Amino acid sequence: MERKVVVVGGVAGGMSFAARLARLQGNCRITVLERGADVSFANCGMPYYIGGVIKNRAVLTVASRAMLEKRFGLDIRTRHLVTEINRPAKQVIGVNLESGEPFKLPYDQLVLATGAEPVRLPVPGADQPHVLTLNTLEDMDRIAHAAEQAGAAVIIGGGFIGLELAENLRERGLDVSIVELTHQIMPPMDPEMTAPILQALKSNGVRVFLGRKAVEIGHNNVLLDDGSRLSAGMVCICAGVRPRS
Fold first, then answer.
1. From the centroid of its chain, how far is CA 34?
2. Residue among 128, 80, 130, 125 nearest 105 (CA)
3. In this structure, are 14 and 83 located in the same domain?
4. Cβ(1)–Cβ(27) below 8 Å
5. Which domain holds residue 229?
6. Which of 95, 100, 150, 192 could bond 233 through an S-S bridge, CB–CB 3.0 to 4.6 Å?
């Protein structure tokens, strides 16, 4: 008897699981529900597309939806948001974000692979259109578009993503400032290991504000806790992620 397996989340973990299950067991009908527009993409390359190092957006797609469906027999439904799980009835309930139509989908086994989402700062002005995060290809497109007109960018967070964005926005000619709450960039690393990175940033014209936090985001500036204001046509929040649950 064919088992109905529903996977919620279709990027890294969810799509890897679905493809592996399809290889190992042929008696499953596997449906993947992804709320975004893309599946199985190389998110590590996104900052470098923004900076123009990667020219072709298509190379960021590790495996297309059409290829995955054809090769593994998957039923992949993008722009489908799951809002509820009815465990007694073994159903997932949600909405098609393109049509607005609700859906119910039965399952025998359910896998949750919803991943993580960027942390949003609880400061005034953080909900403005020019305040952006980088998590999906759609986010990448928004940042690349904003960079065309911004002139100056403030990056809140001096970790991996923040530094890669700083590098690539600087490559595009923007004035770039990094605001990091701790007293070093790359907080997970030993301080002495970050010194050459800090020097390289400064040598390339990136301003770095350590031990500072943003307390307000204005229309074209960011107010820090010491009273200083940084010019900002765009703001990128790179303050880590939290589980999307």
1. 14
2. 80
3. yes
4. yes
5. 118-243
6. 150
Q: Are 150 and 238 found together in one domain? A: yes
Domain finish residue from 66, 96, 114: 114
Residue 19 region, left (φ>0) first, then alpha (ψ -120 to 50), else beta?
alpha
Element (H, E) at 109: strand 109-112
216 and 146 together in one domain: yes
56-62 contacts, C-beta under 8 A, 24 or more apart: 57/137, 60/137
- pLDDT, one tens digit per residue, over 37-67 is 999 899 999 999 999 999 999 999 988 999 9
User: Which one, of 82, 68, 70, lies nearest residue 38 by Cα?
Assistant: 68
Question: What pLDDT is recorded for position 25?
Answer: 87
Query: Torsion-angle region of residue 50: left (phi > 0), alpha (psi -120 to 50) or beta?
Result: alpha
- Tokens at 48, concatenated: 């470098």
Calculate what percentage of the chain has a pLDDT beyond 70: 100
Look up the CATH number of the domain holding residue 176.
3.50.50.60
Average pLDDT over residues 153-177: 97
Domain count of the chain?
A: 2
Residues 6+ apart with CB under 8 A from 45: 54, 59, 60
pLDDT in tens, 11-26: 989 999 999 999 998 8
Phi, psi (degrees; rounded to nearest 5) at 59? -70, -15
Decide: 235 and 217 in contact? Cβ < 8 Å: yes
